[in-house]
Amino acid sequence: MIIIKILNIFFTQIRSIAMVGLNIFSKRETKMYPEEPINLPSRYRGRLILTLDPDGEERCVGCNLCSVVCPVGCIALQKSTRKNGRWYAKFFRINLSRCIFCGLCEEACPTCAIQLIPDIELSDFQRKDLVYEKKDLLISGTGKYSKYNFYKRSGVSLNRNNSVNKDKNTNFIDVKKILP
User: Fold this and answer.
1) Which end of the chain is more exposed for a tag (fewer CB within 10 A), N or C?
2) Model confidence over 52-107: pLDDT tens digits?
3) Counting Cβ atoms within 10 Å, is residue 136 exposed (0-12), middle (13-18) or buried (19+)?
4) Which one is predicted more confidently, 162 or 119?
């Protein structure tokens, strides 16, 4: 019985040495990141950003849809209204240590304000540094949808009299025609 155990250990060691010898000159599987760039899939979802519309205004209207659809509850915001009647997010906060990058917030956003970009460098030493505020998320551009403007598309114009009016000259969009 003891001889069988000793032979089993001996042949296991010989097999391990043989496997190492077979693979010692094969191509390496480990990527040398960051020296070698990683080829990400085209639909990869990484860091979240907030974008501006073509007029330079914040796209986020604080509708809270992103917060509602988030399965882990990592988005918090509060809506406020400007003097011209435009809604905006008074504060917008995402806890990236809880985010699972599912992309539901991007799909739910009616103004295309939230977008996920292929940025993979999100690590940090302190968990509290992974809570991103509005100033951390807001970029200076339009992101993926360069011509989309929610207020123009929806037919709502803003005036300076502290109210929102429907623009009578704007043709409303038939939602049934734009659906596939």
Assistant:
1) C
2) 988 888 999 999 999 999 999 999 999 999 888 888 999 899 999 899 999 999 99
3) middle
4) 119
- 50 within 8 A of 138, measured Cβ to Cβ: yes
Place of tokens 């103004």: 111
Q: What is the pLDDT of residues 99-142, one digit of tens each?
A: 999 999 999 999 999 999 988 888 889 888 899 999 999 998 88
3-state secondary structure of 140: coil
Q: Bridge partners of 132?
A: 94
**Chain Cα centroid distance, residue 177:** 29
Q: How far is Cα 122 from Cα 99, in angstroms, rounded to an integer?
A: 11
The three state secondary structure string of 72-129 is CCCEEEEEEECCCCCEEEEEEEEECCCCCCCCHHHHHCCCCCEEECCCCCCCCCCHHH
3-class DSSP state for residue 131? strand
